Amino acid sequence: MPTHYTLRMQFGPHQDADIITDQLLKLVEEARVDEIMFFFFAEEMNDGHGTLEDVRTWIENSRPYRKALAEAGITVSLNPWHSLLHADRGRRMKSQQKWQPMVDRNGKACTAVVCPLDQDWRAYYEEVLRLYSQEGFRVIWIDDDIRYHNHEPLEWGGCFCPLHVAEFNRRMGTNATREEITANCLAPGEPHPWRDAWLDMWEETHLAMISRWREIIESGGSRLGLMSSLPEAHAAEGRRWADWWKALAGERPPIHRPHFWGYSETVSRTLPNSIALLDQNRQIQPENVESGPEIECFPYGNWNKSFRQIGAQMALAQICGSTNLNISLYDFMGNWPDDEPERARFLSRWRGALDWLADQFPMTLKSVGIGIPWSPNMGRKIHVKDHDTGWKALQCPSRGWANWLGASRQAFSMRPSPSINALAGPVVWSFSQSKLHEWLSQGVLLDGEAAAILVKRGMGHLIGFETARMIDQTEVLYSMEQISDEHFGLRQGAQMSVNAKPYTAKLFQGRLLDGARLASDLRSPTQNIVGHGLVLYQNELGGRVATVPWCANAPVEMNIHRATQLQRVIGYLGNGVSHGNVEGSAWLVPQFLKDGERWRGVIWNAGADTVARFTVNLPTGWETISSAIHVKAEGERSSALVEGNQIVLVQPMHQWEFVVIY
Ligand SMILES: [Zn+2]
Questions:
Q1: Which member of 7, 90, 308, 452 has the lowest number of beta carbons within 10 Å of its beta carbon?
Q2: DSSP state of 170
Q3: Residue 202 Cα, ligand 1 centroid: separation in angstroms?
Q4: How far apart are CA 599 and CA 543, in angstroms?
């Protein structure tokens, strides 16, 4: 199957439709585009909720170029930019729009963003969708403003308005205030039952609304598509994905646009996070999904993001399993594609490589690597700490280890592995005792916070600790970690800084059980040993456990000593099973994928230094590399030499380029 280019664009009703028609017909040919998805009422052209008359004006004015595209064989879709509305940004409801605004936990109300429980707004929006549904669009997208989080200027988001409080009380038979409800939902420790009840109410009201929208859209012959945001943010809304797919698509394959890459140019260290995000999305999607990750580059143009990086972004989407690419290269103001013809040339140049990648990486491939388990249920299960950080406290981090393992050149997967799993921080609350026992009978890598939670849950005896506490530098003046066991570092005596960094702001310390093996220690500025570092333990279940004292849900601080330490730890935990890794330069990031007997690998150069050769340590079960193809930033492909497990490049690999092996 080839890839599918969908360009996302907006032209306003003030623009000359003849000019836009000419511009678009030229663009779709030059850029080898399959589909155009038009925005209505987006960003700069949004002044709140458009009236039905405004909606008709947008529909009428865009009809000539939509018709011309369809006649030229180009598919046309629609992305109305407002349902609830993303953010106020000075916008207000119009005089006839007497709707309940969205309200945050503290009682602050929006001026334009609405509450989804307002029945008058719902009737209005159904009418808007009815108008859109008559226009022959392939897909009508719900933007990711259908969410509770991220509605500026609210704290975290909403909605905690009087309608929502009343609905909660009606369901529960209570008479609680907003303050009482949110205090219970965010109570420290074991989640209060009201948290689940509140999240269920949020879920059910959204699902009923979306099912209704699907009926309207499908009766006109279009399909409903959904954009989504970060999984941890949706988890803090209590989202249950299987129910969403059903509401959105019934029994048909759902249409999904996941977010996975920064909107502006990003740096080396963000690549593992993007890989992990796509992998998380693949897990919540059904097998037959139409998945078109957003290739978003807001606020657009080469000063914001380089073609080199956009090429990598599109390639990664294809490698991680995508049927479509939803590409945003054009601003919302309707400036002409001709203003910057390089964009069409860029898309055309990459098309061949992306068609090839789509073929090489079908949706059936699954990521292989160290397992990093997470759960879409984590927002319901997380234990809030004592301090009140608002609803954001329910946004459970889940990609910490992906960032550290990716930076240390280890392959990872966001699904559990049958041999090694890595757990960091409060995501541990999401898993049952029996699931944790199962993993602890294999190989487990723990960060400090995860270890402390396991001790609290009565599993200290399985990880080598009798007690647990978290320390900071005011309590114990640590500043360095020293390798004390040469098997778990580059050399004995090598040191790593643990001074004043987010990942070492709090360190885990505990009383070690007999048999626990110390592989590094914490030192003061004057070289006194003030605590334990890395601890290894073989437990009564036969499992091997490695615990680092620091926090993996913090920005990565990588160096040769940390990378080597983690590589050796993974070797120990695997106990003969390899998940695959790569050596040869900083910021080489490996990916391995498998489908039955078919293996695929990708080695990225996310770093700014060029790479001439590197070594691939294949995952267990993959015997030999038969071919290696270097994909360059211009979308060109050339063969690389394979010498055993060494890849030698004919031309050096620059940043954001990659080698595909099979
Ligand atoms: Zn509300």
A1: 90
A2: H
A3: 9
A4: 28
pLDDT, tens digit, for every residue of 255-292?
Answer: 999 999 999 999 999 999 999 999 999 999 999 999 99
Q: pTM of the full predicted structure?
A: 0.98
Q: Round to whole Å and give the CA distance between 81 and 121.
A: 16
- Tell me how far apart the alpha carbons of residues 642 and 640 are, in angstroms, rounded to a whole number: 7
Return d(Cα 94, Cα 77) in angstroms, integer: 28
Q: Which helix (H) or strand (E) holds 269?
A: none
Ligand 1 centroid, distance to 160 Cα (angstroms): 5
Which helix (H) or strand (E) segment is 451 a member of?
A: helix 448-456
Mean pLDDT of 384-401: 92
What is the CA(115)–ligand 1 centre distance, in A? 4
- CA dihedral sign, ordered 228, 232, 238, 239: positive
Exposure class string for 134-172: b at 16+ Cβ within 10 A, else e: ebebbbbbbbbbbbbbebeebebbbbbbebbbebbeeee
The CA distance from 67 to 113, in Å, is 33
For residue 119, how far is its CA from the centre of ligand 1 (angstroms)?
11
Render pLDDT for 537-591 as a digit per residue (tens, 0 to 9): 999 999 999 999 999 999 999 999 999 999 999 999 999 999 999 999 999 999 9
Angle formed by the axes of helices 52-71 and 119-133, nearest 10°:
30
Q: What is the dihedral of CA 470, 475, 479, 483, to 10 degrees?
A: -50
103 CA → ligand 1 middle, Å: 6
H/E stretch holding 101: strand 101-103
Please answer whether residues 49 and 112 qualify as being in contact, where contact means their C-beta atoms are separated by less than 8 angstroms: yes
Please answer whether residues 453 and 476 qualify as being in contact, where contact means their C-beta atoms are separated by less than 8 angstroms.
no
